[in-house]
Write a structure and sequence with these properties.
Pfam family, one: SET
CATH architecture of the largest domain: Beta Complex
Radius of gyration: 22 Å
Keywords: Signal
CATH class of the largest domain: Mainly Beta
Bound molecules: S-adenosylmethionine
Distance between the termini: 45 Å
Protein name: SET
Number of helices: 12
Strand content: 15-25%
Number of domains: 2
CATH topology of the largest domain: Beta-clip-like
Helix content: 25-40%
């Protein structure tokens, strides 16, 4: 299944949105990574980025693009830059317009931007093969919350529209995205799992790729090292995807002991046990036997109830209308539900809700406290770390000047 990425300025967020019909897919979104919705008119700190000095790199495609078009005449081409990310290479299968825009991204423009990325010389994990789940990553060093697990760039970025008009032809072009990569990268790509027989590249996209909107169209991103992580419904790692650098990174969301498997979630965790298990079976072809999936019926029912409450609290706390029933107390309830449900990765989001809820009733002291806690947890709390982080920083600097101040009056 595809992991669904919602792309935002500078970043993209991974969670379930529009499912990709047709493609069975990749890794799924994480319901915990949704940015907190703010009132539409709220000024966003992220709207005034500082201009960066950029060193121009050569961004020529290293292979002449080859193209197909659909019935409407829309062209999709294979674009490869074998020098991308210090020689790792990258292929796109997308429209010429998008390929042109991509060249302007910091990923292609900023010298040295990938210098510490794709470095697997001394990782805090090793790959182990476990019967019934294939390869997985296991910690070889103790990791603390926030520690980097890995950061990689994609070997392929594929528009979901590119290969559907005619599968046979589409697969031929998918094959080119692979063939045109450097030899070493081809090997890395082939090491990823394909859980169904079929087209060699398509099936790897289905099993491993993240899906999301990119330059206004749905795309799949194949991150080959990220792809080594197995799923758990209460994972110990969180990931985020930076759409301007094309770097995907995973961090520990709690302490991970030596020998423990490092896991992420493939789907929105804020669903019931049955929903999650059905999706995992249907899209990734496995019966989930993680701790939560194997718990007693009673524990699962309790957990489902907590998840329902969490979803309700998200809705209430995101309501900035005059009828809003949001209070700081509800935000604290939310935080304790995350704890109870072992949704470690969500703690930052919970503090963010609390900071806003306190500030909205004029308790600036508690607001600043929670904003600081949100920032502390921030690295792993949210797909929109950049925006939310900036928002929290603004709140800490001047709670009374923040858009949320007294928005809900005093209660
Ligand atoms: C992104 S890959 C993960 C790495 C994969 N195990 C490998 O060998 O490269 C996704 C595939 O791994 C397997 N998988 C992931 N999580 C699993 C789990 N919790 N239990 C069993 N199989 C799992 C499934 O076959 C799934 O389609």
């Amino acid at each position: 299944g595809n992991i669904d990425l919602e792309i935002q300025p500078g970043l993209c967020n991974i969670y379930e949105k529009s499912p990709f019909v047709n493609v069975s897919q990749i890794i799924k979104p994480d319901g915990l990574q949704e940015p907190i919705s703010r009132p539409a008119e709220a000024p966003r700190a992220s709207e005034t980025p500082k201009p960066k000095k950029r060193k121009k790199l050569s961004t020529r495609w290293t292979t002449k693009p080859s193209c197909i078009s659909d019935e409407a005449g829309q062209e999709y081409c294979v674009f490869t830059n074998a020098n991308f990310a210090n020689g790792r290479g990258i292929s796109f299968f997308t429209t010429p317009t998008i390929a042109e825009n991509v060249k302007d991204l910091p990923a292609f423009q900023e010298m040295g931007i990938h210098d510490n990325i794709n470095d697997f010389s001394n990782p805090p994990w090793e790959v182990r093969n476990i019967p019934g789940r294939g390869n997985g990553l296991f910690a070889t060093r103790k990791l603390e919350r926030g520690d980097l697990i890995l950061a990689d760039t994609p070997l392929g970025v594929y528009s979901s529209d590119a290969f559907f008009p005619d599968y046979e032809l589409g697969y031929k072009y998918l094959r080119k995205t692979y063939e045109q990569l450097p030899e070493e990268s081809k090997k890395i790509l082939l090491r990823t799992a394909a859980h169904n027989p079929g087209d060699m590249i398509m099936e790897r996209i289905n099993t491993n790729a993240f899906a999301g909107e990119f330059e206004g169209m749905n795309h799949f991103f194949l991150y080959p090292e990220t792809a080594l992580m197995n799923h758990d419904c209460r994972p110990n790692a969180m990931y985020y995807h930076n759409i301007s650098t094309l770097v995907h990174s995973a961090h520990a969301s709690r302490t991970i002991n030596i020998g423990e498997e490092i896991t992420i979630t493939y789907l929105n965790l804020l669903q019931s046990n049955n929903e999650r298990q059905e999706t995992l079976k249907m899209i990734w072809g496995f019966d989930c036997d993680c701790k939560l999936c194997s718990a007693s019926e009673l524990s699962k029912a309790r957990s489902d109830l907590n998840i329902e409450k969490i979803n309700e609290l998200h809705t209430t706390l995101s309501d900035w209308s005059s009828a809003s029933e949001a209070t700081p107390k509800l935000a604290l309830n939310l935080l304790s539900l995350y704890e109870k449900e072992h949704l470690h990765a969500a703690v930052g989001t919970g503090h963010m809700f609390a900071a806003l809820a306190y500030n909205a009733v004029g308790d600036t002291k508690s607001a600043v406290k929670h904003a600081k806690l949100a920032l502390d947890a921030g690295m792993v709390s949210s797909g929109s770390v950049v925006d939310d982080g900036k928002d929290m920083t603004t709140l800490i600097e001047s709670p009374k000047g923040h858009w949320s101040y007294m928005r809900r009056g005093s209660r």
